[in-house]
Amino acid sequence: MENKDFTTSFLVDQTPGEVFAAINRVSDWWQGEIKGGASKLNDEFTYQMEEFHFSKQKVVEFVPNKKVVWLVTDSKLTFTKDVSEWTGTKIVFEITEKDNKTQLRFTHMGLAPTIECYNDCSNAWSQLVGQSLYSLITTGKGKKVF
What we know:
By secondary structure, this protein is an alpha+beta fold. It has helices at 16-23, 118-139, and strands spanning 6-12, 33-36, 44-49, 53-63, 67-77, 90-98, 101-109. The chain has one domain (6-139): Alpha-D-Glucose-1,6-Bisphosphate, Chain A, domain 4, CATH 3.30.530.20. The longest helix is centred in the last third of the chain and has 22 residues, at 118-139.
């Protein structure tokens, strides 16, 4: 079986700068408790969703209006046998211009069908990125998706 990372993308009318700014406003679109920052290289933040999910991210790549990469340095998913499945994975946001629009391509490198949390986590990312982040970019307000 091919190790295929979870990826999703969408097009918006907003500029690459507006998309980039929205991505970095993590607490406005990623639901749960966020502590720390994600607005510059080497920033670190934690994410907590009740007792089910904890993760710590470090901004390891930060190219204004083009790309943001978070390295998951610690994680605890209480609904999987391997609670640290996310540790060492990367969350990648790539911004490009396409057909006079801005494309956001999201990839969670390491979130592949071969790991236990793939179905639940890819579904959550689809909602968070495809609905909440999309809404933040297009309306200025993230959307509660769960």
